[in-house]
Amino acid sequence: MKPLTLSVLYPGLLVALACAPLAAWSMTKDGYPAIEFRKLPNAVQRSYVNEKPNLGENGRCSTAFDSTSDQEKMIFTCSIYIKIGSEGARRSMNRCEDQRKQLHVKAPCAVIVE
After folding, report:
1. SS3 60
2. Each residue's pLDDT tens digit in the chain (114 positions)?
3. Angle at 95 between CA 90 and CA 96, to 5 degrees
4. Of all helices (H) and strands (E), which one includes residue 59?
């Protein structure tokens, strides 16, 4: 007789728990991972609010962070004065990925959405 474990009682539970971290991420219409403004660390929120007037209609900002308190493990980058929104997201994400590798940040980059 098999011992009763969570995987026997609730086979979908392990899959749901494994996918739970992905639930916080959504996708932009351009196909990039997105993170909501309200889920950002305070330091990134302040940077975004300061940069927002320069974004215009098509500018985009990206971020990645391993810690919500250690600013050395946070990346924030924006593309401003862009004519096409998808180009702003692409440039911002590329710059974020480059910085992520340099700073050894493990979290993936994501475009900030409101």
Report:
1. strand
2. 545 454 444 444 333 334 334 445 677 777 899 999 999 999 999 999 999 999 988 899 999 999 888 888 999 999 998 888 788 899 999 999 999 999 999 999 999 998
3. 95
4. none
Total length of the chain: 114
Contact 62, 110 (CB under 8 A): yes
Q: Which two tokens stand for residue 20?
A: 């739970």
Contact 77, 96 (CB under 8 A): yes
The strand pair at 33-36 and 110-113 is best described as parallel
8 Å CB contact between 17 and 6? no
> Cβ distance 14 to 6 under 8 Å?
yes
Read off the pTM.
Answer: 0.74
Asked whether 100 and 59 are in contact (CB, 8 A), the reply is no
| Sequence-ordered alpha helix ranges (H) in 6-109 | 6-9, 11-19, 42-55, 85-103
Classify 78 as helix, strand or coil: strand
